[in-house]
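Example 487, ligand adenosine-5'-diphosphate.
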Amino acid sequence: MIEVLSVTAEVYPLIKTGGLADVAGALPAALAQSGVTMRTLIPGYPAVMSRMTSGREVWSSEDLFGVPARLIAGRVEGLDLIVLDAPVLYDRPGNPYVGPEGWDWPDNWKRFAALSWVASELGLGLVEGYRPQIIHAHDWQAGLVAAYVKYGPSATLKTVMTVHNMAFQGTFGAEIFPQLRLPQHAFSVEGVEYYGGVGYLKAGVECADVVTTVSPSYAAEIRTPAFGMGLDGLLNNRSATVHGVLNGIDMDAWNPATDPALAQNYTASTIQQRGVNKRALQEAFGLEASNGPLFAVVSRLTWQKGIDLLAANIDQIVQAGGQLAVLGSGETELENAVRAAVMRHPGQVGLVTGYNEALSHLIQGGADVMVVPSRFEPCGLTQLYALRYGCIPLVSRVGGLNDTVIDANVAAMQADVATGVQFAPPDAHALGDAIRRTLALYADEKSWKKMQRRGMKSDVSWQASAARYAQLYASLIGVTTDDNPDH
Ligand code: ADP
């Protein structure tokens, strides 16, 4: 067994703001079949602490970056957790990263340095009887792990850094450096220094033994200035250690045959029963009962996600007899753009703001088309859920969207392999064309159903990718695994 400590700022089902939580939550079970034991280190936010009632304290200190802290180990929802309970840092309302007014917590540098420092100490044997061989750090919040390990005493402890989104880098002023518990020479280009300040993601990408990102296409894209967001040069230097490993989905949590959030469960062979969910969805969004194509969005409403491109095309969807249901929240202008469309097209366009896990499932089970018009997309999960639920993904041809959806062009339709619609470049005009293509495909009921069934059969599980992670871990510590997906 390979022992890995996963370090993350969110993990489903305890605390989730996006895809990172889904991935961190699903990986341990997926890896168990590949000979990897994974425990997860997570901050003790209120939502986490309330679930740790039967955990036991395994370490405590009066001075973790100046505040009292303890570690609590326990199992919750099948996850083997180590929770960093430091109330001064984490016992706060709302989101893991921002306060109730929407601003980043000003001490985020300390909140996540503390998490990363504790992770590296766990790797050195902080808790008796537990010593991971590898620490797997996720995103900038865990970026310093690799720096603490690199500048620490262990020559055998290995680190993996996974970048779920290059856009969030965790950059701070140089003034925090003296408080990070790193040696002075770590403030250098080989360490944590980044454009004169401290870069947490940069530190992870620079110092980790292996860097992964969540799709092969994104792994290639981030080596270019357009997608690298300042780290493309570094990634090019380290290209031999950068791997793209596609995310999978939790096949139990996302199963249309058993999903309790659906009005009607179904399988590929009973796909016509999706109609019951479509009707429930129309009701939930205040839409008229209609058999026209129901487009949907489940997303953060941000520039990255291309919601403005969709907003520019809503009238076209409605004029063609289609409807649109949007679940999400984010930037005010984008919310307002969708809201204006709801006012223009009452009964045809609906918006539900806020976060609603159950409704996100119903959308996958009832909508006809899942629109994901991202400008960049490291992997994307909503299109994977859509495939599994027989909801046709309409996606921009970037990152993981490119790797997971097969465009319904003439050749792919003739070869019976298409699973969705892609468009490029990510602009409103190309999306408009793709919507017209989707409408034409929808009009051919028989081939649409075939495409839905094909999507439902495509492999969106963790199986191949978990084996790939296991292989990367094994190569780091010099052992081999039997699970070689390349053979
Ligand atoms: P990202 O992590 O960039 O936000 P992903 O597609 O990787 O995008 O993951 C988004 C995850 O968050 C999916 O599980 C999606 O269903 C979920 N999600 C996004 N917005 C909402 C919302 N408003 N309500 C419920 N789930 C949401």
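Summary: The longest helix spans residues 108-123.
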